Amino acid sequence: MKILVAGKHGQVAQALVRAASSQALDVVALSRAEMDITDRQSVETAIADHQPAVVINAGAYTAVDRAESEIEQAFAVNKTGPLNLAKACDGAGIPLLHISTDFVFDGCKESAYIETDVCKPINVYGQSKLAGEEVVAKFNGRHIILRTSWVFGGEQNFVVTMRRLAQDRDQLNVVSDQVGGPTAASHIAETLLTIAKAVVRPHFADWGIYHYCGSPAVSWYEFACEILKDEPSVGVSAIPSADYPTPAKRPRNSVLDCAKIRSIFFITQPDWKNAVSLKKEKQ
Q: Engineering a disulfide at 256: which of 77, 206, 211, 262 sits with its beta carbon 3.0 to 4.6 angstroms away?
């Protein structure tokens, strides 16, 4: 089975290529130069050339704070891109798997978010990702939207940042009043491949939105403490979000309920701590 992936240089796309090599799956990841998802013709040409059974959109504008001033760019990638993919895949009769985010919610709910909760993003990034979800659902009935959170696994993410800062500082202040489920890119990749193999089966009908993230839920402060638990010379202090102002507001609660994906695809929440430990061993 051939799977075409948009966003070649992203954390999840790279993890997809690695994971596919052990599963006899043909994953072709394309860069923006090879398939510009903001260009309808570029998308249609790539799909026609590669003839995939499934397309995964791992491409996204993810600079949350910069999106506040680069609104047009964020919406071009996060809305127009998925729109082009949805239409092209629908025309070719191909399922589309699209990665989304916990940032479609405002974070005010006290418990974990389920797929049917009302979306109310509080920053431009979240608004652009929600717009992407809406066009995917509207223009391709054969879609899976996978919302995830706090992704790590590539060269630029929270885990890498904490370890880099720990090399130069003996004290770090980390926000403690935002809670979510850290999720390894490798785990997301494995989940997407499991879903991809399921959606090509005859009579598959469980299309729609699914939540997937790591467990247990923690604050950024608790996440940092786990990352740096083997660095006793570095102190980590908890601070409120008010003491670390950013251009974009963040949801206080980003915890996702993953019961639906478990019931439909038999995919369970992974322990993100294992992935953090494994990543440290490889460095």
A: 211
